[in-house]
Write a structure and sequence with these properties.
89 residues; rod-shaped
Length: 89
């Protein structure tokens, strides 16, 4: 944790980076899923469209996993004493 930084600032920094990466990954994933779906429909006979509920469900699950994976280390970083971290280096 940086000297003088408040725990909420550290938490905000971690979460803002995570949300930017999550947004970029979600947009690319949706574009990729749609492109692969169209390619499969062009090649194979009888392949249905991707149901929007499946896509929304996948986005929700990935959002929960991503926020949890970011929130745990962020909360841990807010509890580190800066002087203890300096002594460890």
């Amino acid at each position: 944790m940086a000297l003088g930084a408040r725990p909420r600032h550290i938490l905000h920094q971690f979460l803002s980076i995570d949300l930017r990466l999550l947004t970029a990954g979600t947009v690319l994933g949706v574009i990729g899923a749609q492109g692969v779906g169209w390619a499969m429909q062009a090649i194979l006979f009888g392949v249905p469209d991707l149901p929007p509920s499946i896509l929304v469900g996948a986005i929700v699950i990935m959002t929960i996993v991503s926020l949890t994976a970011c929130l745990l280390p962020a909360r841990r970083a807010t509890r580190v004493d800066p002087m203890t971290a300096f002594r460890g280096d």
